[in-house]
Amino acid sequence: MNEMELEQMLSALGDGDDIDHKRLNEILRNDPAARHRYLVWMDMEVCLEETVARSSSSSKLVPFEHKTGDRLRSWTRRLALAASIMLLAAGVATGLRYFQRVAVLTSVTGQVYIQRPSGKVQAESGTWIFSGSEIWVSGSQSEALLTWNDGSLMRLSEACRLAVSVRHGQKFIQLLAGCFNADFQKQKPGKPALIRGPYVNAEILGTSIRMDAREDATRLSVIEGQVRVIRESDHQAVLVTSRKEINAANGIGNLTPQRFLWADRYSGGKQGGTAVATVTIGSKAAEPKPPANSTPVGRAVP
Amino acid sequence: MDSNNETFTRLFMQNQHALKRFIRAMVPNASDAEDVLQETAVVLWQKQPEYDPSRPFFPWAMQFARNKIYQFRRHHARDRLILDDDVFGLLLAERPSLEPQLDRRRHWLDTCFKKLPGHSAGLMERRYFDGMTVQEIAAETQTSVSTLYKLFYRIRDALMRCVENSLVQEVEP
Predict the structure, then answer these.
(1) Measured between alpha carbons, how far is residue B119 from residues A48, A262, B155 in Å?
(2) Which of A18, A143, A297, B170 fits a 20 to 30 Å CA distance from A254?
(3) Among B130, B152, B156, the residue to mutate for chain A (most A Cβ within 10 A)
(4) Domain range for B66
(5) Which tens digits make up the pLDDT trace of A136-149?
């Protein structure tokens, strides 16, 4: 068995790249040692996610050092070196940003916990939220106000469990249980906040919207701007524009935007002249029990 | 959240990584494995009333994970399926006997990871913490994809050797 060949295939596979399936199956079929290596490798892949998160420190990725001096001889290589230095500076800055917190709990009432790779910690007002954290509003009448670095606000009600992360400047939010209300500042171009909830995924493009997810359906109303909605069950996608709403059940019927007439219920979509998205998932009066279709697992990064 | 829900959630949280590891071994594409895990979680949540707390959680949850894996294989028989049926069967049969060894490996992985040089640890952070693909890291670091694959191979190999040495020392102190 060529271990490196096998590992390259497994690594590419993990990235979703095309590999020679026939060759992989041939190796695994004929070689028990390769199967052993495969099982150990796959297990290590998942464990490494936890291990790296636990061990993550200040070590940062820097461009590789070239050992040979002759690489500097040509002008093109000198230019490449200059570009590398600039990339190094940008990389360090990006890396520093990545390991910084993405939000803060500005207000905490009752029992609120943060699930981090190192374990669950009780949150209090002022607790910082790092990318990849899970927030769990546990006790009855508990509540938390999450303020993102860009000023977007999320109010998490009791029994709410939410996974949040930021990747390359884009927010990923996954509702695991319960409900939340949120006011989003206009998001960066090309980087909509992605919200994953029961039945539908929503891309917040910098608009004013309201979203209600219930056990049997999710209703999304756009006050101003536009939101792309993708139904989970059949991946049907629809763009919902101003003053329209959709009602998405689990794979039932078409996602056809309908005009709504009660816009006055959804006033307040603007704050300080900045377009915001107002998202409500679930209802404040929801039972403490998470919806039956909610999933208690997952990272916000898709 | 009532105490039953809390207990169930706690049990799930305790076991979700073990479920994920099992699913990933049988569904090698990371994103497909995540989907199967999500679907398993939904079923577990729906079946929660049927769970008998006097029974161990993991074997109960595993039966649903296994069903979801079979379901995934049925639905993706022609497109995304990677492992042939016979190879899948072999891996499924061989993994349980490997489980005690995998447990010990996990135990030593943390220690061995801390011994990695800073640059290697940084690369691993990009891959496993930031979730970047090899192609993305290659673009960011201006390194060729094949060079990066070799580097990752060396890092993983170093980790594996470290873990294996630790296992040997564990047996022969």
Answers:
(1) 16, 57, 10
(2) A297
(3) B130
(4) 1-82
(5) 888 778 899 888 87
